[in-house]
Sequence to fold (132 residues):
Amino acid sequence: MGEPTGTTSVTSAARPATPTDHLANERTFLAWVRTSITIMAFGFVVAKFGLLLRELSGTSGTGASTPISEATGVLLVLAGAALLLLAFVRFRTTRDDLDAGRYRVRAGLEWALTLTMAAIGVGLAVYLVGTG
Fold:
């Protein structure tokens, strides 16, 4: 009853963590690493795509600017970096929980990623509707 919402505690004092438990934790961490790298790469592409459009339009650097694409790209890169840090904290916490013979299901990382990406997606959609 004393558990926070979205957190479930499971204690397994009879069975210590096995190598497969730790390997599963590591695989999950690596999946989050791949996701964060993908988000950062997408941010880089978004930021540089505005530069490509400016170059293709034939304007010099003083004419058309792309502050929205650059800001969105930087935001995505920062979101990917933040996700990587959160994933590392979760990996270490889960490893410590496994070593202590307990495990807590935490949904914070999933919520953070979902809300951040949804906000960026809505922002991009508004931008596309406004400029299209």
